[in-house]
Amino acid sequence: MSGLPPTLKKILITEKTGLTKLATAWRALEQKVSHALPFQTYDWNLCWWKIFNDNSLLHRNLPVIAAIFNGNELVAVMPLTNSHIGFQRIFLYRYVRPFGADPNLTELRIPLALPGYEQVILGMWEELARHEMFGLTEFQIIHQSHQVKLFLLNNHALHPLTERNIPNYILHLNSDWPSFKSQLKRNIKESLRRCYNSLKRDSLQMEFVVFQGREQVQRHLPAFYALHRHRAAAANTVEHPDYFSNPRHQAFLSLLLDSPFASRMYLFCLKLNQNIVALRLGFRMNDELYLYYSGYDLAYARYSVMTTVLAETIQWAFQQDIRRINLSVGEDISKTRWNPEVIQYTEYQCVRNSWWRRYTGEQIFHLRQIKKNLRPQLRSVK
Fold first, then answer.
1. Which of 4, 70, 115, 139 is 20 to 30 A from 373 in CA distance terms?
2. Where does the record place the BioF2-like acetyltransferase domain (predicted)?
């Protein structure tokens, strides 16, 4: 990046108190970045560290917070986990990756940066690679595809082993609901018509309710977990695991609700004849709404209740002057049918660019793939 101000300062914060020291500056940066993601917020990352930071005799996690300051202003931040396998400072294997290494709770793990500082914060990966003296370190880098590809093209201290594309789907709300609906494809218009007509035909009285903030969301979390479990059991549809069967995952949401992040949390609820039949969790980020996990009662699946929840949520968003709805990552028909914009992210697994590290990293990746392919066979044997 050319034309950087002389006041620019790049630092790596490695002490465990580094997160809390950045709280004020980090939260201020969130307000300056257009379309910030919930996973980039200070509160999400602090809660994540408290719940998912694991240490044992031979496994140690340390925070590495890469931060860019322009004078006294924080302009980019990237929280990383430095995982060591070995004794103390002598390690055989190390994994440096963004906060959020969890079973799909943190859906996008990218740095938070003002425009123009993306390549500077990505450049911190090369500095980390140059500091490696012993053992094998694997680096995981995730960003918008064009940004991370440009970084790897211009920085040769890292060698990419693998590449995974992550599509993210965005709805733009530029007018009003009737105009938005008129521009939809015929199949989704017909699907919406059937959704509402089927409820009327069977004399099911519909009510759409929005729960917001700590008390309301906390009160309805048991229903959300139960309906999410129902959704995971659905057959003949896109497979979704029960992500909240793990008590730690529920503890993570509870911790978020005990933080300032709670004001961003919403549950979008569909009631039929006063019974809750579908819920979807969402996070409001200024003028953008990020739609997260959902669940529904399988007894009402024939009414396509989740399609109705999304349609009602979009109408609510127009009323709230929300300009974008993020449908989250991962390609499936429930997102693509709405004709959204697609933002491509790419995840790379990298090692330092030396011949033995490249070879060793490739062998480890190959063994991982064998283990991954064996898991379904082992489950079927059980």
1. 139
2. 188-332
The CATH topology of domain 8-167+344-381 is: Aminopeptidase (3.40.630)
User: What does the angle CA 118 – CA 124 – CA 125 come to, to the nearest 5 degrees?
Assistant: 105
Sign of CA dihedral 45, 326, 341, 294: positive
Contact (Cβ atoms closer than 8 angstroms) between residue 279 and residue 223: yes
- For the chain, the residue count is 382
Position of tokens 């004709």?
339
End-to-end Cα spacing for the chain: 54
Distances (CA, A) of 275 to 182, 304, 308: 31, 16, 15
111: phi then psi, degrees, rounded to nearest 5 = -65, 155
CATH of 174-322, one of 3.40.50.970, 3.30.1390.20, 3.40.50.300, 3.40.630.30: 3.40.630.30
Alpha-carbon span 157 to 177, nearest angstrom: 50
